[in-house]
């Protein structure tokens, strides 16, 4: 297990990680999510003893990484796939790492087979594609057959087949009881790979929960209801009936209604009872990527000046990270209306990180109310 308690890292005036506490448990793939510059790599470097925390602690298997007697056999990591001696062949690169850690040479051939690089084992790695480099980095992480594995953006540069392979490899390693901690800035990828999510923004914890809980809390379902365009009074009538039955009803740009809070058969019955003809009654789901974007939008450090979201959200100070308020109804992050810019509009109401919905099984979220300045 990996455990961070109050982890903070400052580089001069930059606070890369602030008061981060979490646990990464064995037997599961834990996704470490956050936008660019959120502090994922810094956190991973601190876990691996490559950077010292300014304050707080992080342990692997109950002790700091540097105190592990044979670290390479306990923890494997892929941080930067390009950090290889390009003049060495793939096999020699792995052989050198194996010799440093007392790992037998036959294990090198095993891991080359696992990552599918056996045919290019005698080629110099400087000629490798990004994807081959990632596979070599994963092979290096697996060398010591470690119980704990850290992967920083492992699918970067991989083609769909490679992404699929990494996804299955992570799941297989977790199924063997290992602790798998994998960073990404892509919610869509993590939704398919991870069992548990730790989401950070500007170095602070935004969410620590199971993927299923995250999906349930964020993928608000809704129905689209369309009635004949030349019957606006019927539309008004239906809106009133649905609202009276407890639904949240919002108009859509094309004249349809977005209805949240009632199942489709009930909507159909209410329309029938009110004598309103329906042209469309369809179920919809807000995308998880959209929920993640909404969660992290105020925590994005770097944006292109072309980014339509740039400047729309005020930068928030550490310890006061807020998440945008949900539109009326539909759970934590109700989807924006089609065609509506979800990032425009008035500034959001304050919601502190400690109010993030929690999985019943997960630990209580640490609060980040202290202002370090
Ligand atoms: N050695 C360093 N010196 C100064 N600032 C640093 C250093 N390393 C990281 N930072 C800063 O700390 C913050 C977090 O960076 P980090 O690389 O950990 O984020 P990240 O979530 O891994 O981002 P990305 O997805 O872009 O890799 C950024 O503002 C970054 O510029």
Automatic annotation (TrEMBL):
Biased composition (Pro residues): 335-349
Pfam families named in the record: ABC_tran (PF00005)
Electron transport among keywords: no
Annotated TM spans: none
Region (Disordered): 320-373
Gene3D superfamilies listed in its UniProt record: P-loop containing nucleotide triphosphate hydrolases (3.40.50.300)
SUPFAM superfamilies in UniProt: P-loop containing nucleoside triphosphate hydrolases
PROSITE patterns given in the database record: ABC_TRANSPORTER_2
Family: Belongs to the ABC transporter superfamily.
Protein name: ABC transporter ATP-binding protein
Taxonomic lineage of the native organism: Bacteria, Bacillati, Actinomycetota, Actinomycetes, Kitasatosporales
